């Protein structure tokens, strides 16, 4: 059986994420190569939310996936990559089922 692999940014059409809380005290646009994944991660059907630290502030970020299965897969990738930059996820390869 052959497994197809996609880059994280291809798997998630709504990438990069939107900032939904904490944006008042930071410079825009967000430089995702400087924002660090800082958990925790929550799932709500096809929506994934996580925290990121940027310019000394904690930002709540969110993105939508095509379905719940993809949300769970994306959350797993975020969980395994805590402490890395948000932009570094762009090229992570994720098996597609």
Short description:
The chain is α+β, with helices and mostly antiparallel strands. The protein is built from two helices and six strands, in the order E-H-E-E-E-E-H-E.
Structure summary, number of beta strands: 6
Helix residue percentage: 10-25%
Number of domains: 1
Structural class: alpha+beta
**Unreliable stretches covering 5 or more consecutive residues:** none
Structural account:
The structure is a single chain. The chain has 97 residues and is of the alpha+beta class. It has one domain. The strands form two sheets. The chain has a four-stranded antiparallel β-sheet. The model has no long low-confidence stretch (mean pLDDT 88).
Index terms:
single chain, 97 residues, two-stranded antiparallel ribbon, 6 strands
């Amino acid at each position: 059986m052959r497994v197809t692999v996609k880059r994280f940014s291809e798997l998630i059409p709504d990438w990069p994420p939107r900032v939904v809380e904490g944006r008042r005290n930071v410079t825009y646009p967000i430089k995702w190569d400087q924002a660090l994944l800082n958990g925790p991660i929550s799932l709500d059907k096809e929506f994934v939310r996580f925290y990121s630290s940027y310019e000394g502030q904690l930002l709540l970020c969110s993105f939508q996936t095509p379905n719940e299965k993809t949300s769970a897969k994306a959350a797993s990738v975020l969980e395994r990559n805590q402490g890395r930059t948000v932009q570094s996820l762009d090229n992570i390869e994720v098996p597609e089922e």
